[in-house]
Design goal:
Layout lengths: L2 E4 L4 H14 L8 E4 L4 H5 L16 H10 L7 H14 L10 H23 L3 E2 L8 E5 L7 H11 L4 E5 L3 E6 L2 E6 L10 H13 L7 H7 L2 H4 L8 H18 L3 H12 L11 H13 L5 E4 L10 E5 L4 H6 L6 H13 L7 E4 L3 E7 L2 E4 L4 H18 L3 E5 L1 H8 L5 H4 L3 E4 L2 E6 L2 H6 L3 H22 L1
The protein binds uracil (URA).
Length: 472
């Protein structure tokens, strides 16, 4: 009976090649033993066979290859055998992948989901500590204990996100190292002694800020951020205390609430560049003001398009300005950029309908050429002029997190538009609360090179995934 020994690294491609070879040679699943990451495998099982050469002319549905690519990282030692047994059946029944009632497929899907969840947890809960090394690049290290073998498939995410620094993610399973732009993998290790990090304070502040005692759901919180990760998360040490004090804080907030609106109104009135009416205090007032201003037509500008979405949303999404479609429909993000955003958000698990979606500037600015109205970016003065609308929407919604998309939103929310590409993917503390920085979806639409567009779309999706988790 052949024993196929799969390597610890690049297990996904090794399993795929071995399975293709076995299939081409007609080796049934019960005649194969699978071993993984065991150099002394020959001693344990007698002989280790090289897999038959990968067969040509074997076609396997892409959906199965995608599934296998996740399942191979599961911790279950039976994973390779299960995959091969299913592949063997698939050869005879190509439609098996669509059979929702098939118990083997359901099992593999559950395994793939567990791997995805573990990879997500890793991207959300790895916390780097600054090693304060000398040299041109900063050095960071993190310790993590994944449930499945997700270090290798997740490392490219960290390389993209933290490409401008050197880092190590140490785990008991395997250690990923990123140096001068290259990833390498090394044996796992015991937990190293890592220095405290100044960034921990920021995380702690952010976490305490977004913690809403009136909405605390302990069980849900623990399922999103399981207790096993708490010990490595700087912000988690605040959880027991915040839960203990939740009821008192919720009462204090309710008691303090009636005194807040006038104070905020005074602040907002100061921000308005040219107030013509009393500062509106409700969404209704804001809508009336928008309608009134929209009746005044300005050549080269559209009407006022306000934001939309739940008025108590946890997440506020801010774009640049309405486009031609938005101006016609009077709603934000309904044109091509909005549709692209919706698609990627859905893939990332970000529920647009649960967010308040708006723009930094409220009128479409255009240049008329024939019948077409060509988009013109707002200038600094226009961004500043429109800021009071956004500030007021923010004050009314009071989101836990703001997603800033593109340079105009960044300028309006943080006062600085430079370095968008360096700042993206991170949270910035601002007077407006925590702001997550990313690019505008129309940037993706404008990229001419398809492979660059694909990479940038993947990064944008990762940003939205991070936001979905943070605002959950
Ligand atoms: N681009 C934006 O920034 N906002 C919209 O509403 C539409 C396109």
């Amino acid at each position: 009976m052949p024993t196929i020994a799969l390597p610890r690294l690049h297990t996904d491609t090794a399993w795929r090649d071995a399975a293709r070879g076995l299939l081409a040679a007609g080796v049934p699943p019960e005649d194969v033993l699978w071993a993984w990451d065991a150099p002394d495998q020959a001693d344990l099982f007698g002989t280790t066979s090289a897999p038959p050469p990968a067969g040509t002319g074997i076609t396997v549905p892409k959906s199965f290859l995608d599934l296998a690519r996740r399942v191979v990282w599961h911790a279950d030692p039976e994973r390779f055998a299960r995959l091969y047994a299913f592949l063997w059946r698939l050869r005879e029944s190509p439609r098996l992948m669509a059979d929702a009632a098939d118990a083997d497929l359901a099992h593999l899907n559950r395994m793939a989901k567990a791997v995805n969840r573990c990879a997500h947890k890793m991207t959300a809960f790895v916390r780097f500590r600054d090693l304060e090394a000398e040299g041109p690049r900063r050095h960071f290290a993190a310790w993590f204990e994944p449930t499945h073998h997700t270090v290798e498939p997740t490392a490219p995410f960290f390389a993209r996100r933290f490409g401008d620094m050197d880092w190590i993610i140490a785990t008991p399973d395997i250690t990923a190292r990123f140096e001068n732009g290259a990833i390498s993998f090394h044996p796992g290790q015991p937990r190293p002694d890592l220095p405290e990090d100044a960034a921990e304070e920021l995380w702690g502040t952010y976490f305490r800020n977004i913690f809403n005692p009136a909405r605390v759901k302990v069980r849900m919180m623990q399922s999103e951020m399981p207790k096993k990760y708490w010990k490595n998360l700087p912000e988690a040490r605040h959880i027991p205390d915040m839960i203990a004090r939740a009821e008192t804080r919720a009462r204090e907030m309710a008691e303090a609430a009636p005194t807040l609106p006038p104070l905020r109104a005074a602040r907002i009135a100061n921000l308005r560049p040219a107030p013509r009416v009393e500062a509106p205090m409700t969404f209704e007032d804001l809508r009336k003001r928008a309608e009134a201003e929209s009746r005044e037509t300005l050549p080269g500008y559209g009407r006022i398009v306000l934001g939309e979405g739940p008025e108590d949303a946890d997440l506020m999404i801010v774009g640049e300005q309405p486009g031609d479609h938005e101006d016609r429909e009077g709603r934000p993000f309904v044109g091509p950029a909005g549709q692209l955003f919706d698609r990627i958000a859905a893939e990332a698990g970000l529920d647009r309908d649960a967010a308040y979606v708006t723009n930094a500037v409220k009128r479409f600015k255009f240049r008329q050429t024939g019948k077409r109205r060509l988009h013109q970016p707002p200038n600094a003065g226009e961004i500043q002029h429109a800021k009071w609308w956004l500030d007021l929407e923010r004050e009314l919604v009071r989101p836990k997190l703001i997603l800033s998309m593109g340079a105009t939103a960044l300028q309006s929310l943080t006062g600085k538009r430079d370095g968008l590409m360096k700042r993206r993917g991170r949270i910035e503390e601002t007077a407006a609360g925590p702001v997550f920085v990313t690019v505008h979806p129309s940037y993706l639409l404008r990229l001419p090179d398809p492979s660059r567009r694909e990479d940038e779309t993947a990064r944008f999706r990762e940003d939205l995934e991070a936001v979905a988790r943070l605002a959950a």
